[in-house]
Amino acid sequence: MLKITVENHQKPMTIYLAGKLAGPWVDELQRVWKSLRGQRPSENIRVDLSQVLFVDSEGKQLLASMLDEGTRFENPQLLTRYIVDELQSPRAH
Predict the structure, then answer these.
(1) 42 CB-near residues (< 8 Å, 6+ apart)
(2) What is the rounded CA–CA span in Å between residue 46 and residue 42?
(3) What is the pTM for the complete model shown?
(4) Residue 44 near residue 21, CB atoms below 8 Å
(5) Signed CA dihedral, 17, 75, 42, 6: sign only
(6) Distance of alpha carbon 70 from the chain centroid
(7) What does the alpha-carbon distance between residue 21 and residue 79 come to, in Å, rounded to a whole number?
C-alpha cells in the first residue's frame, strides 16, 4: 500500500509518499503526478520520499521518468537515497 498526499498550496508543489511504491500503486502515483503536471506544466514538483519503504522495478522506472522531467526528490532514507543516486548517475540514462 502507498499513501499519496499532495500539498499544493506552497511552491513548489510537494507529493508525500508513505509505504511501498509497487504494483498498482505505481500506476496511481503516475496518474496523480501526470494530473499535477497537466495543471501546472511549468512548475517544479517535489516528491518527499522519507516514508517510502520499498520500490519495485516499475516504481524505479516511474521515478526515473519523474526525474527526467525535473522532479526533485526530498528526504530520501537509506533505500530511497540509493535508488535516487542510482537514477541520477550517468550510467542510468
Answers:
(1) none
(2) 13
(3) 0.80
(4) no
(5) positive
(6) 11
(7) 12
Q: For residue 90, say if its preceding peptide bond is cis, omega within 30 degrees of 0.
A: no
For residues 68 and 5, give the distance between their C-alpha atoms in angstroms, rounded to a whole number: 22
Identify the three-state secondary structure at position 90. helix
Our count of domains for the chain comes to 1
Q: Enter the DSSP assignment of 22.
A: -
Strands 45-55 and 13-21, sheet pairing = parallel
Domain of residue 17 covers 2-92
Using pLDDT thresholds of 50, 70 and 90, give the confidence band for residue 17: very high
* CA atoms of 35 and 76, how far apart (whole Å): 23
Q: What's the grid cell of residue 54?
A: 520499498
| CATH value at residue 28 | 3.30.750.24
28-50 per-position pLDDT tens digit: 999 999 998 888 777 888 999 99
pLDDT tens figures, 44-75: 889 999 999 888 989 989 999 998 888 888 87
